[in-house]
Design a protein that fits this description.
Blueprint lengths: L7 H7 L1 H8 L4 H30 L6 H21 L6 H7 L1 H18 L4 E2 L2 H14 L5 H12 L9 E2 L1 H31 L12 H14 L5
Parallel strand pairs: 1-2
Helix pairs in contact: 1-2, 3-4, 3-10, 4-10, 6-7, 6-8, 8-9
Length: about 230
């Protein structure tokens, strides 16, 4: 998986200090909101394309081409939106494509800790590289952005004080705490989503809906001229 020219991992390679300064202003919830926004819009585009397929293959009305054109316009607009939202790539995805580059990026992030903390027992550069495979195996669902935010939290004392050593066990402990907090937030969002679904507030379409429902949904989309956000 190649990195996009303006992606944060690419900026990390080009100007590490600036990239880390930028990520220090972002909270974990904001990063997750970006991921959720991309997921929602991708789902909306998929829903539109299903409606488009229905009109192409099953709708026989005289206004068929009008509907198809309207849906296509909305799809194009939504694809422009999705292209403007940063794609957050997980460590698991990156490790399958270019593990060496991934290791270098992880070390760039972790090495900043050695500049920040002043302790007697400090992890070496070789130790940082030895830590990379463990991180890639145990934290596949996190992204480089997640790791950077986690390390910034550690600088701020979010995971407690650092007592005279900075080694692999300390760093892995921070990442474990970060991942636990992330999973708790995810569980809470899923609970709210499921609660909304039970009381009829869920949106989207399941594969089991009949053609009349597909048509009605497509007409609603066309009628408002844009997807509900």
């Amino acid at each position: 998986m190649s990195m996009k020219p303006n992606s944060w991992p690419m900026r990390l390679q080009q100007n590490t200090k600036q990239a880390l300064r930028q990520i220090a202003t972002i909270k974990p919830e904001q990063l997750e909101a970006i991921q959720e926004q991309r997921k929602v819009i991708i789902s909306e585009i998929d829903s539109l394309k299903r409606s488009q397929q229905f009109f192409k293959e099953e709708y026989a009305g005289a206004d068929k081409e009008t509907h198809l054109k309207a849906i296509e316009e909305v799809i194009i607009r939504q694809e422009c939106v999705i292209n403007s939202i940063p794609e957050i790539v997980t460590i698991g995805q990156m490790s399958r494509q270019n593990p060496d580059v991934l290791d270098d990026n992880i070390v760039l992030i972790l090495n900043d800790l050695r500049l920040f903390f002043q302790v007697d027992h400090m992890i070496t550069t070789e130790g940082l590289y030895a830590l990379c495979p463990i991180i890639c195996i145990n934290f596949k669902s996190l992204s480089l952005e997640d790791i950077a935010i986690c390390m910034n939290n550690a600088k701020l004392g979010h995971y407690g004080k650092l007592y005279n050593r900075l080694d692999g066990a300390i760093i892995l402990g921070w990442l474990t705490e970060y991942q636990k907090e992330k999973m708790t937030r995810l569980d809470n969002r899923n609970y709210v989503r499921e609660a909304h679904a039970k009381i009829g507030l869920n949106e989207g379409r399941s594969a089991g809906k009949d053609n009349s429902t597909l048509l009605r949904e497509a007409q609603i989309i066309i009628g408002i001229g844009k997807l509900k956000r």
